[in-house]
Design goal:
Layout lengths: L2 H30 L6 H26 L14 H21 L7 H11 L10 H30 L5 H15 L8 H18 L3 H22 L3 H4 L11
Amino acid sequence: MIVFDHLFFIGLAVVYPVLSWLSYRKLCRRMAAGEVINPVEIYRSTIAALWSLFGIAIVLWLLTDRSWHELGLGLNVDAGFVIGLLLTIGAIAAVVRQFGGMDAADDKTRKAWRRQLGDLRVIVPRDDRQLRLFYAMSATAGIVEETLWRGYLIWYLGHAMPVWAAAIASAVIFGFGHAYQGTASVPKIALVGGVFAALYLLTGSVWLPMLLHAIFDAVQGRAASRVLGGNEDESNSATGSDTSNP
């Protein structure tokens, strides 16, 4: 490793989560002040930030002439990969089955989603154009976050601990990287990150975690869009208890 590896790790594990949290708090203050937030600006800034981090990692790998397998970008179609592929297909089917029928959600379901989302309603796509850009953001998250939070972090932490411990640590860091969604969400997101990490260890690459991650985000985004779509005024004026998430 080189000095920049340590700096990049600090950026992923500390700087990025803090900046994300501060940015989201600023967004909440804008909403509380009555400003109407266009989710498109959030999608574009998120996509730009993630691809910038991805570019840094790729340049770092090229400059140090490292194997792409170390970053999780290799591919070995062996028994582990086949098992991982079957598990991924099963997980995707389960996610689609759980969230695919939200077009006909009843009022009780809609209210439950609104309570659960809180301030995060601002990032829910409200029309087909926004939904397409949300899909692009989901694909970006799948590609970039799996390459960095799984491939890079497990590689980096693996120099100081067993690979299984590095996978757990990367999942925890992944959870805190999404702390802007509320501290109560951190354990849940860390658990999801643990599933992606387990799939990465099983297959030896990030390709299937990328696929599962991207589809997981896209399906949930579409479900939220179908449940909350058309409620722009309500979603962009989340105040009171809705702005109390830490």
